[in-house]
TrEMBL record:
It comes from Rhodotorula toruloides (strain NP11). InterPro entries: Thi_PPkinase (IPR006282), Thiamin_pyrophosphokinase_euk (IPR016966), Thiamin_PyroPKinase_B1-bd (IPR007373), TPK_B1-bd_sf (IPR036371), TPK_catalytic (IPR007371), TPK_catalytic_sf (IPR036759). GO terms for biological process: thiamine diphosphate biosynthetic process; thiamine metabolic process. Belongs to the thiamine pyrophosphokinase family. Pfam families: TPK_B1_binding, TPK_catalytic. This is Thiamine pyrophosphokinase. Residues 199-269 form the Thiamin pyrophosphokinase thiamin-binding domain. It is an enzyme of class 2 (transferase). Its EC number is 2.7.6.2. Keywords: ATP-binding, Kinase, Nucleotide-binding, Transferase. It catalyses: thiamine + ATP = thiamine diphosphate + AMP + H(+).
Length: 280
């Protein structure tokens, strides 16, 4: 029987302290957030991602983004802010700010250090701030080998300059293909993405927060043979875009028609989907 990898967005959004689970169901995974220096997702989504995490790191200027939203109040009116749920500044303190600190502003640094948050500089020029924080996460996991690894949720990295977005997708691919992390998600302001390795995948998607637009991107390969169910325009030998490649046809601006989607692919591809409420 072929293994199927489950990608469940509900696992990103379920607090580890929530005891309202079905009988005999496994507990949600431990989530670790790494916040990049990139626009945060809309507050209703970010609130749930934050609450579902048991570890929260800021990669250098990612702390500026937290500071701007939760201390300075920048952009709150347009981001689904709720004073009752979000107004306590003390709720939004990360466990660590780590990087070369060339992007961290002095006002944000003073604030977080004054609140007791560890701010650490790593001057290594041969690793990115994202790489530094993932390395630190791996060290923490190695110190507790009896516990399952964290499900990694990267906040940001899919907006702004194209080369930086490609770097994020490159990092996702390395984490999945080279370092063997089972599930790594990237959630930005407008889009979310994962790397689907060769094999079969089952995606369970919360359509109140993600979709309806989605896509499958065959990056880093000459072509991919992908078969799907659950999309408005499915891929497959009897459907569309089979094989798919940048030089023939790519499934972009596709639509989710149900919460359950299956994807089978013969090489790694990027799955991407819209974040509701994030686009201008």
């Amino acid at each position: 029987m072929t293994d199927v990898t489950l990608w469940d967005t509900h696992s990103l959004l379920s607090s580890p302290h929530n005891t309202a689970r079905a009988p005999n169901s496994p507990p949600p995974p431990r989530n670790a957030l790494i916040i990049l220096n990139s626009p945060l997702p809309p507050q209703p989504l970010f609130r749930r991602l934050w609450d579902a995490a048991s570890l929260r790191f800021c990669a250098d200027g990612g702390a500026n983004r937290l500071f701007d939203r939760f201390v300075k109040g920048k952009g709150r009116a347009a981001d689904g802010w709720d004073d009752e749920l979000d107004g306590d500044e003390g709720r939004w303190l990360p466990d660590l700010v780590l990087g070369d600190l060339d992007s961290l502003r002095e006002d944000a640094r003073r604030y977080y250090e004054g609140k007791g948050v560890r701010v650490e500089q790593d001057p290594d020029e041969y690793s990115t701030d994202l790489g530094k924080t993932v390395t630190r996460l791996s060290q923490l996991e190695s110190s507790s080998p009896s516990q399952a690894p964290y499900q990694l949720v990267i906040i940001g990295g899919l907006s702004g300059r194209l080369d930086q977005t490609v770097h994020t997708l490159h990092a996702l691919t390395l984490l999945a293909e080279k370092e063997g992390r089972e599930r790594v998600w990237t959630v930005g302001r407008e889009s979310a993405a994962v790397v689907l390795k060769k094999g079969k995948h089952h995606l369970k998607l919360d359509l109140s927060l993600f979709g309806k637009t989605c896509g499958i991107l065959p990056l880093g390969t000459s072509s991919a043979h992908v078969t799907t169910t659950g999309l408005e325009w499915n891929l497959g030998p009897k459907d569309h875009m089979y094989p798919t490649s940048l030089s023939t046809a790519v499934s972009t601006s596709n639509h989710l028609v149900q919460e359950d989607v299956t994807v089978e692919t013969d090489v790694a591809v990027i799955w991407t989907m819209e974040v509701r409420g994030g686009a201008e």
